[in-house]
Amino acid sequence: MPKLPNVKGKTLLKILEKEGYLLDHIQGSHHILRRQDGKKTTIPIHGSKDMPKGTLLGILTDLDISKDEFFLLLKKKK
To answer: Which GO terms label this protein's molecular function in UniProt (predicted)?
Structure first.
Protein backbone atom coordinates (compact mmCIF):
# COMPACT_ATOMS: atom_id res chain seq x y z
CA MET A 1 0.00 0.00 0.00
CA PRO A 2 1.43 3.39 -0.93
CA LYS A 3 2.19 6.02 1.68
CA LEU A 4 -0.31 8.73 2.47
CA PRO A 5 0.22 11.75 0.22
CA ASN A 6 0.90 15.29 1.37
CA VAL A 7 -2.49 16.95 1.70
CA LYS A 8 -3.40 20.48 2.72
CA GLY A 9 -6.31 21.06 5.07
CA LYS A 10 -8.26 22.98 2.42
CA THR A 11 -7.95 20.06 0.00
CA LEU A 12 -9.21 17.58 2.58
CA LEU A 13 -12.07 19.94 3.45
CA LYS A 14 -13.20 20.06 -0.21
CA ILE A 15 -13.00 16.27 -0.55
CA LEU A 16 -15.08 15.67 2.56
CA GLU A 17 -17.67 18.28 1.59
CA LYS A 18 -18.18 16.41 -1.70
CA GLU A 19 -18.72 13.25 0.35
CA GLY A 20 -21.60 14.77 2.29
CA TYR A 21 -19.88 16.37 5.28
CA LEU A 22 -21.19 19.82 6.16
CA LEU A 23 -19.36 22.60 7.94
CA ASP A 24 -20.82 22.67 11.45
CA HIS A 25 -18.73 25.53 12.80
CA ILE A 26 -15.26 27.08 12.81
CA GLN A 27 -13.18 27.51 15.93
CA GLY A 28 -10.06 29.49 15.14
CA SER A 29 -8.27 27.69 12.32
CA HIS A 30 -10.14 24.43 12.92
CA HIS A 31 -13.17 23.56 10.79
CA ILE A 32 -15.58 21.10 12.39
CA LEU A 33 -17.46 18.96 9.88
CA ARG A 34 -20.53 16.84 10.58
CA ARG A 35 -22.55 14.38 8.52
CA GLN A 36 -26.21 13.40 8.85
CA ASP A 37 -25.33 10.02 10.39
CA GLY A 38 -23.55 11.78 13.27
CA LYS A 39 -19.93 11.29 12.20
CA LYS A 40 -17.86 14.38 12.79
CA THR A 41 -14.26 15.47 12.68
CA THR A 42 -12.05 18.52 12.98
CA ILE A 43 -9.91 19.67 10.06
CA PRO A 44 -7.01 22.03 10.85
CA ILE A 45 -6.60 24.69 8.15
CA HIS A 46 -3.13 26.18 8.55
CA GLY A 47 -2.58 28.18 5.38
CA SER A 48 -0.53 26.42 2.75
CA LYS A 49 1.06 23.92 5.14
CA ASP A 50 0.67 20.21 4.52
CA MET A 51 -1.22 18.30 7.17
CA PRO A 52 0.96 16.01 9.32
CA LYS A 53 0.55 12.33 8.38
CA GLY A 54 -0.58 11.38 11.89
CA THR A 55 -3.29 14.03 11.86
CA LEU A 56 -4.53 12.88 8.46
CA LEU A 57 -4.55 9.25 9.59
CA GLY A 58 -6.46 10.22 12.75
CA ILE A 59 -9.10 12.05 10.71
CA LEU A 60 -9.50 9.08 8.37
CA THR A 61 -9.84 6.77 11.38
CA ASP A 62 -12.48 9.05 12.96
CA LEU A 63 -14.52 8.90 9.76
CA ASP A 64 -14.02 5.16 9.13
CA ILE A 65 -12.30 5.85 5.80
CA SER A 66 -9.56 3.39 4.82
CA LYS A 67 -6.36 4.50 3.10
CA ASP A 68 -7.54 2.83 -0.12
CA GLU A 69 -10.86 4.68 0.01
CA PHE A 70 -8.98 7.93 0.60
CA PHE A 71 -6.80 7.36 -2.48
CA LEU A 72 -9.97 6.83 -4.53
CA LEU A 73 -11.45 10.07 -3.15
CA LEU A 74 -8.25 11.93 -4.08
CA LYS A 75 -8.38 10.57 -7.63
CA LYS A 76 -12.06 11.47 -7.92
CA LYS A 77 -11.24 15.05 -6.88
CA LYS A 78 -8.83 15.52 -9.80
So the answer is: endonuclease activity; hydrolase activity; mRNA binding
